Amino acid sequence: MIVPEYCEMFSGEAKRRLYNSAVRQEFNVSLLETYFGTVHVRCPIFDPSVFLKEFYKQIPDTLNTMLDPVIAVTLACGALFSKHPTFKADRDETSRKKRAATRRQSKIVSTKLAAGRKSHENQGPSLFSPAAISRLPTGRKRSKSRIVDDHLTRAEEALDFTKVHRIAHTTNVIAAFLADGLFPGARRCNANDDPRASGGFADVQRSFWLEVAISHMLELGINRQSSLNELDHLHDSCGKAQLDTVWWFACVSDARQSALCQRNLASTLEMTVFKLRNHL
Question: How far apart are CA 175 and CA 247, in angstroms?
């Protein structure tokens, strides 16, 4: 595939190591091993041997190349769960810079508080007093990895550049379904889908990419065995079985999110029953 230039700012010693081709190849293999050992065993939606063959044909040798959406999302999934030493070094470096920035910010706040203490000493306790600041939440204990963010960004840009959400294709179905685990949704859903409502579902989000995957499968007719047999680029039973697996995983995920978010199913019950009858 023809790819555009991909501009990315690599900073930090841990990230600069990835400029070395041999290190980057070992790093990518490690991410794939993490994906197949963590994600694939729970959600086996493609044949590892077929995927690895395509991976070694398409994986770019430079950092400034747009990846295939399935490969980009797979690497991002692996990056989320990887324990590679590069991630640890990146988190440690990020943590050191974060602590240094926090100390500088604390000095600025202390200076402003000291300057304004005399003029506010008769107005009661300040919301920005040292005691109040000390009670603020400190945030996540584990420092964030910029390399993980880079992989998520590349996955988002690959999905957007190839128009995965618009073009109904079997490859885009797989990419969208995998992306559902990385980008679960943009807005929260509550009881009756009312943003003013409160309850136990406030932290559950609608899944944009899951709905994209189901919409593409319905457009391609994957829920109908006759339509599945007519897909020209699926010449083997492996590809058809793969799409069957994606369909059933998507139906289960859709049913779960429908119950939690109290919304209509993206895949209707009639479509699921029709598919089930073809298997019986």
Answer: 13
pLDDT score, position 176: 92
Cβ 206 vs Cβ 189: under 8 Å: yes
pTM, full prediction: 0.69
- Percent of the chain at pLDDT > 90 equals 12
Say whether 205 sits in a helix, a strand or coil: strand
Write phi, then psi, for 32 (nearest 5 degrees). -65, -40
The residue assigned the tokens 């559902």 is 180
CB contact at 8 A, 233 and 244: no
Query: How many CA atoms lie within 13 Å of 91's alpha carbon, on the beta-carbon side?
Result: 16
Q: What is the rounded distance in angstroms from the CA atom of residue 81 to the CA atom of residue 22?
A: 22
DSSP secondary structure code for residue 206 in this structure: -
CB atoms within 10 A of CB 15: 20
Q: Which residue has the tokens 């402003």?
A: 112
Query: For the chain, which residues make up each domain, given as ranges?
Result: 1-162, 185-280
8 A C-beta contact, residue 144 and residue 150: no
